[in-house]
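Reading a protein record of the kind used here takes only a little practice. Think of the row as the fold of the chain written in a discrete alphabet. A record is reproduced here so that you can trace the correspondence yourselves:
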Amino acid sequence: MHIITISREFGSGGRELGKRLADQLGYRYYDREIISAISERSHMDSNYVENALEKPVWQMPSPTFRHSFAVPGLFQTEQLNLLLEQRDVLEDIAKKGEDCVIVGRNADVVLSEYSPLSLFVCADMEAKLRRCRERAAQEEQLTDKQMMQKIKSIDRNRAKVREMITGSKWGDRAAYDLIINTSGWNLKELTPAVADFAQRWFART
């Protein structure tokens, strides 16, 4: 079984790269499916679940949190339950024994015992702004300054959530097996190179 996890800066194209990578390698792809599974198991609205998991509204847990999740009093019960559900969903995916690509959800840390290939996808701000403008809904009319603030805010949240629940730093190059800067790249053209790296990486581990 081969697992590829993708952490990514907002607007860097990490989600698209993950989907293309899964298609090229013939792997299962997990992204929104994880939120849907948590929503179903918790009987909560998927948008609420996603927002609750991605905003750092909790207090700082102890160093044992990432191992035991036994941190009474530190979290609101509902949010802790969602984190537990997320961990269980990720572990259920891994236990299926299928080759897969998982985007986000700090899966590289949660599933570390499965030795996943951990990727971090980033890009310069100009490239992220361009990608966000290309994919923005028609009704979303943000200036470049507003879009830049949105990008920075989402990435700050991702960094804080990762540190709170894993004790590791989001984007720290030492935490990943490969860092991919998508600036100036067509992702369709970049995907085969990443797929080749993945195949070589799994062949040697």
